[in-house]
Amino acid sequence: MPVPARGPDGSPGPAPAGPPAVAGDPTHLLLRTTYGLSRQLVEDVTATGPTAWLEQQLDPAGIPDAACDELVSRFRWLDASAAQVRAGVNVGSWDAMSELTQAALARACWSKRQLFEVMVDFWGNHLNVTCPSSEVWDVRAVDDRDVYRRHALGRFSDLLVASATSPSMLRYLNNDSSTKTAPNENYGRELLELHTVGVGAGYSETEVRHSALALTGLTVDDATGTFRYRSGWHHVGPLSVLGWSSANTSEDGGLEVATSYLRYLAAHPLTARRIAHKLAVRFVSDSPPTALVDRLAATYLAGDTQLKPVLRQLFASPEFAASAGQKTRRPVEDLTAVVRGLGIEVPLPKDGVVGMLHWMSYERGQPMLGWHPPNGFPDVAAAWQGAGTTVMMWRQQLSLAGSWWPKNLRHPGLASLLPDPRPTTNGGLVDALSQRLLNRTLPGDERAAVLGFLGPESSRPSDEIFDWQLPWLVALLFGTPSWSRR
Amino acid sequence: MTAPGTTLSSTAGDGDPCGCPGREFTRRTVLRGAGIAGLTGLLSSGLSTQLAFASGPTTGNDVLVVLSLRGGFDGLSAIAPIGDPGYAAARPTLAVPENRALKLDDTFGLHPSLAPLKPFWDAGTFGAVQAVGHPDRSRSHFAAMEELERAAPGTSLRTGWLDRVIGLAGNGSPLQAVTVGSGTSALALAGPAPDVAMRSLDDFSMDTDNLAHRKRLTALRAMHAGRPGAAGIALTALDRAAEVRSSTPAGTGYPTSGEGQELGSALRDLARIIKTPGSTLQAACVDFGDWDMHENLGTVDQGRMTRQLAGLGAALAAFATDLGPHHLSRVCLVTLSEFGRRVQQNGSAGTDHGSANTVLLLGGGVIGGKVHGVWPGLAPSALDRGDLANRTDYRDVLGELLRVRCGVPNLSSVFPGFQPNPIGVARP
After folding, report:
1. Which of A207, A310, A330, B418 would you label with A336, given CA atoms 20 to 30 Å apart?
2. What is the rounded distance in angstroms from the CA atom of residue B369 to the CA atom of residue A100?
3. For the whole model, what pTM was predicted?
């Protein structure tokens, strides 16, 4: 498998003066930077301290991840070129895309490079190319590898240029058929609206047209499924968009013109604010403080769109420390947190578990990589209030706790969540389970509701609890308001 | 690794090659399903949610069904202006041929893929409004959709218009407003008034057949009661959904394959809720996306548009048939889309984002058998920057139906700053 990229200049490390100290409680950092707590994770951060742990996570290539690497290596097409996919599957087959969606979920559950996977997902949503969608059947996995995974912790400017020359994006937003005589505005518009400066930037319809014209010629070679610059399709003549301009005098120079336009947009102050705001929504709160966004945007610009300095600053900020409990788990984050919290291990080959977990993400209304519009899954709690999703999550939490479906889960058994010797009171049992699953005790009202399931606080848990009711009890912990927050 | 994880996305595909060579693959990507809500943070609106449902004997309690044709519906293909000389001129390879359309009047013909709806047109329960638009002209899917569903331009309101309707006129039941076919509520329902989103009726249930199931449910009720958020509403709605399932069998006749399958399933569930004795349903949202056909739109005989319209026609006709005259008489279904397509076809045998559009109407509460609105024509001089000119605001259509059929007499807080003008779409 490809090793996650280091910085664009190859440098893995922290700034010479040492990274800023992570602010706040280590559990808070884990909840925000991972797909869910596990016993190992809590032990790791306790051993190293949060600042050093974050530095490790920011250098994913330095984190051994053999079990997940092995799991991912079972997929046939993740590492393949477009030509290999085309040669190996039927035309239009969804096999490679299906593998990618499953691999994404598997990595979220089992990779030790958790922050890296969170950021891959973040950019995959920011520069969304719905997977599966039929026009990217042969190139979507290439996109994942060469765009999001290569640049997830690098420089946004490089990420944007990689995306603009990715066959996947070019087909998804129709730039592959956009020519000087018949320009297609789809990509030129979304580049401004979604990928960079944002819809409020004040560009005109003429500038949208210029945006599309600047990108004419960036297309896909039909024979190979690789990027191709077709100079004969490139519009020639002066262009200007939001302060960028080019005389654009030759067909042969069109790729350079497009690249200069993309790099200009990446380093635009409005792009800086949008990226900073979006990162703050991901990691701090649904309505992040303006002062924090301003500081992150300034760091983004000062660092020539480098992302690691922005993340270091974010996790060291007082606003981050003050935001514990303010984010709500989205359906996929709940799913992965349940898998990780239960200690379910990397599946065995050919047992179908990853495919079934992916089906679960679909049923809860958040199919991994499957958001249809080009703007990516929403990242605020208000978007995920559906009663249907809530009910489906409750059903699945029980099914996973009981190890009933998916079949073949390598589930360590719920007794493994309990201390030895077992708690002797109902109150002790609730506290032990919440300590294990949430790394803290529940607030009083939630604890009381769980005790409603068990019986009086100081009584001995009934035999039925340990005999057969543990799945429902554990699922009830997953149903608490405290669990739903991260 | 195979099933069920391979049936990732519900519309067609499902791993099967479409059989077309090279670049002819259909796009199934854009603007479907999984909930458009949450494009922005949804702040509490401060609107009062008084329960003032004005019930009436025969009018005033219709169910308003909003079918969102996401991606930019091409009304010029559906209700084709075959009698307008500008049509064939602007769309040399994409126009519905005059001899293939089902003639509706001197100007318009129905796309042949919508033929299953023609009997309802003739019966007066299926109709259309042409040249309907809204103030947003960004041509951006997201900005336009958000504005369409917020329906409060020039204000800072962050609620959806249908949420405000339910806040004003809702009956307070958890099944007063539903989104069917998606676990996430439509943006039009975003806001404080309770509503339920369900992927399907059958999925919307919890087991209760042993003691532990029941104890867990009791504890969930205890910990979520009185809290904001989905869980409390979900718990009550579960009970109502169980009543629907036990009292009313699922209808038949819906498409079981093709582009209309998913829409058909959603409408089948919706009809089941409507048909349930004592139903409290007042408003419903269903999505049917994938209309963003920038390239290779096809012809009336093959291609994306004809397949997509066939799915729409089959599912809607099955819905109307399943409801039957009694229940159909108190339903008003309207289609909305963020924008129409540009009149002139583009260089990729598709159409780009346009402006004014067609609204389709279905139900006993609407006056069908007629193309409503004012037709501005497709002569180049009649176009608005290349688009069909906007002659009727979509809030005129919705406002009239809300006032006449749905018991919402005062629309000033539903559509702030806008005074809807009746155009004759609601059956008095």
Report:
1. A310
2. 49
3. 0.79
